[in-house]
Structures are given as C-alpha cells and as structure tokens.
Amino acid sequence: MRRSSAPRIGQWLGRPPSEESSLSRHVRVRTAAVGRGPHTGHLGDRVRSIDGWSVVDLFCGIGGLSHGLRHAGFHVVAGVDADATCEYAFETNNNANFHGKPLEEVTAAEIGGMFPQGSRRILVGCAPCTPFSAYAPRSKSRSDKWSLVGLFLDRILEVEPEIVSMENVTRLRSFRKGSVFREFVGGLRDVGYCVAEDTLDAADYGVPQHRRRLVVLASRLGPIRLPDPTCARPRTVRDAIGGLPSLDAGDADPSDPVHRSPNLSPLNLRRIRAAKPGRPWTEWDDPELVAACHRRASGASYRNVYGRMEWDRPSPTLTTGCFSFGRGRFGHPDQDRAISLREAALLQSFPRDYAFVAPDLPVTFARVGRHIGNAVPVKLSMAIGRAIRGHLEEHAA
Ligand SMILES: C[S@@+](CC[C@H](N)C(=O)[O-])C[C@H]1O[C@@H](n2cnc3c(N)ncnc32)[C@H](O)[C@@H]1O
Fold it and tell me: CB count, 10 Å around CB of 290?
C-alpha cells in the first residue's frame, strides 16, 4: 500500500477561490483537471471536483467503478479487495490506497479510518457472486454464494455513509426467490436510506457493450435517482477498437503489451475462419468444426461461443474469459483471432492508457482477463457518479 497523494479535501484543484461555484458549502463543486496524468486517460475534457466528500470502494478490483467516479469528480481515497494482484492497476490509475484483504478481515472501524477526517462518506461496492470460489473457506457451500452482499450491508450499517452504491449481476434479484436482494434493500430502508434500484444496460451510457447490471443507489439525504441514459446511439465495436493495430493470433503489439491475443489451435483457426460476425456456430457449413460437446442435443443451447463480434453493434457482455474465442462471442470482427486484452479493456470503456500490469511483470491472459471482465464499465460508473453528484447538489445543502 502506498500513501495517497490525492487532493486534500477543500484543496483547490483548478480555478482560484474567487471562481467558486455558488453551490452549498457542503458540496463544493469546482472545475478541475482530475483524472489527467500519465495513466488516467481522457474520458471527457474537464471534470468538476467535489470537495467535502470521499469514496471508499469495497471489492474494488482494478478500479473500473472507482475510475468512473473519479472522472465524475469524486475523491476516491481507498479500495479493498481480497485479490492482491489488483493493487498495481487500482493504485496507479486512481491515486488511491489499496487494501489487499478479504472484507471479512476489515472492520468497520478500519473502513471508517480510510475516510479523511471531517469528510462525508460515500461507500460503494460490487459484492461478487462467487465468493465461494477463490477466497471463501472450503467448507462454505453454494448457499453462501451471496453472503458477501450481507457482509457489505453489515459494513454499511456500521460505517454509516451518507451515500451507498452497489452494482451487481441481475440474477441477484431472483436468487433465493429474491430474499437476499430484499434483505439488502430492506436493511437500508429500515435505517432511513432512500433507495433506487433497477437493471441498467451499460450500452445506454456510452459503453460499446451490452451489459445488463443491477444498480442500487441509496441516500440518507433524500430521494435519489438512478442515472438517465446518456446516449441515443449506442457506441459500437468499431468506435471502440476500429483504430487499433492488426494482430495475428498469438501476437502482441510491440508498443503495447496489453494489445495481445492468445494463440489459436489449428482447429480453432479453422473455426474462426468459418465464423461470421454475429452468427452462431450452428450455421457453420462444416460439421467437423463443431465441438464434440455441442454435437449432443443439449449442446445446441450453447450458441454464444466460438463467435465473432459485429463491427457496427455494441459487443456482447464481456466476462473473465473475454480473451478466449471458445468462451463467448469474443472473436475479432474480421481478424482471425480473439479480441486482445486491450480491446477488451476499450470495450469496457477503460481509457486507452489504463495501466493494468507493472512494466516489469508479464501480461498474463487469465489474470488481466479476469480483472477486465470483472470490472464495472468506466462510463457506466461515470454516469452513476454524475447521478450522485446531481443528488448532492440538490440535497446536501
Ligand atoms: C465484480 S469484481 C469488482 C470489480 C470492481 N468494482 C471494478 O469495477 O473493477 C468483485 C471483486 O471482489 C473481490 N472479492 C472476492 N471475494 C472478496 C472478499 N471476500 N473480500 C474482498 N474482495 C473480494 C474479487 O477479487 C473481485 O475483484
């Protein structure tokens, strides 16, 4: 962990004090060049920095959510994640402290201590749906699958932030007949939070990808609204990755080690040559190319693998296997390879220069693919941040 050099609460970032906006003294909003620097990229020209408020990001990963909030003007001061491999990207791109521990081992007092003294609190998090895999004790059963949602609620109730945001997969809403989600929302309402929740598609917020996610915003200050869609015409795969250098399967761009695509076996090379953008493998002419497991009657339902993306549509939802042709429609629209890790990052709306791996370390597909596929798309996070900002301007007087 390193010391944050994030701007101090109340510190001037851009204009001199005489140009301070006339908003309340509690929500001081100023124009500033937050988010500029060697690794932060450009997601818009200028953002307004919001003083007096700080964000702690639980389950922060490599910072997709934090980065969008930062570009909406918030000071993200710290993130917590059990996966220590997220530290470099989270800290380098977000200028915030990373705490590499399972949330089970981080007390509410410790989280409270991550907020600067006197700052008002925003606590955000994307409790994962698979805690039972990497970090949960072996004895945990699948019925504990959503226990981290309950733990997130416990920490919220103890830390008492004014604002809460949660993003999650839509199946949380129906899991155990909806009881886990109801308990989360009910737990917030019971202690006085106003809650807004709905399923949003990232493509409506400038992300060149269809990705439907459950988003919850909660506030102690008054009724809060989810962000309205920000773009009438969805951004496409071409908009996002059309300008990148061509690659062969198994190659990497010498000027960007993250623009690399895995090797394909001779059989997979034949398959990708047979694949047409947006069309399933069930339409291939050559039955020999069809995987053995897909030849069974039950296999035909797995249509969304071994496919290519379409240039003029948003991409399908990226997963942690986004670099693998056999694990989704992750084939490049017209090059005979899966998309590269950099292309996956751009389809998640990370800025072009987001740094994922320390310069002295190798870029591994499984690790970086997991980091990218797990992330909240940055532009969706920005829209969430703007909705929170609008709410503070209205209610935090
Ligand atoms: C959906 S991802 C978060 C993505 C992140 N918010 C972003 O936008 O980049 C969920 C994260 O939870 C982390 N995680 C899993 N179990 C955890 C635990 N017990 N405590 C803390 N983090 C955990 C995973 O390592 C993973 O990075």
Answer: 17
